[in-house]
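Fold this sequence, please.
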Amino acid sequence: MAKKTYKIAVVQLNLNNTAEENRKKCLHWIRKAAKQGAEVISLPELYSSHYFCQSEDVDNFSLAEPLGAISFTSFSALAKELNVALIIPFFEKRMPGIYHNSAYIIDTDGSQAGLYRKMHIPDDPHFYEKFYFTPGDLGFKAIETTKGKIGTLICWDQWYPEAARLTALKGAEVIFYPTAIGWHPAEKEEFGENQYGAWMNVMKGHAVANGVYVAAANRIGLEQYLPGTDGIEFWGNSFICGPQGEILAMASSDKEEILLADIDLAHQENVRQNWPFFRDRRIDAFHDITKRAIEN
């Protein structure tokens, strides 16, 4: 009989240091999460470095790594040792001139269960990701692991209901969002509350609309490494919510910590039976959703 519950974790961290130091830190925190009973564990976006997309600098391409390199080998060995599944977001060098913002999904035997490449790439002040990342070409996925069937989207993907919908329709029981989101310090007082509120509301909405668990793993801390700028203050507040948008675990804005919650498949099925949004979708009327704009 299939297991009806499993425990997930998101790890909220400050990631300002070198790749080696960040990797050691993340390995340590994953061990801590596994010791607390976590069976599927996610790190924040681009775990191995500071958030380098604050500037457009070709030197930052040296931070990227090919598939199967140290971000896979290190965490693959740990997944196998601890019997856990891992979501490891990293800067992928696919070939010279083509780079992705990606995430490994590593199964409990250390194998690569799946790979996700971020589909939506932002280009905002100090979030200059289009300079670095080619949009993903693997589509939206639900990856089967020995612990459960999980979806992974990355940061800017979280604003798109279509991404969550397609991931859920492919069978994801939980959607993980490795994230690097925060405030421009000069704007925080005026806009910060609404920006943070919108972020929470849209992802809770994905959970409700799709009857799916949602887990966001964010960074914390001020990353100010460019002269003459205020940097970005990553707002933390990582969270896990259930299929009715109910908060199951919530992190602080400024502390490194682990959040844990149970994925209860019987509860998820009950929610979908009582709120049958998938049943009532008018798929016959949705063809215009693939258009860039709709001309009346």
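The chain has five helices and 15 strands. The longest strand covers residues 85-95.
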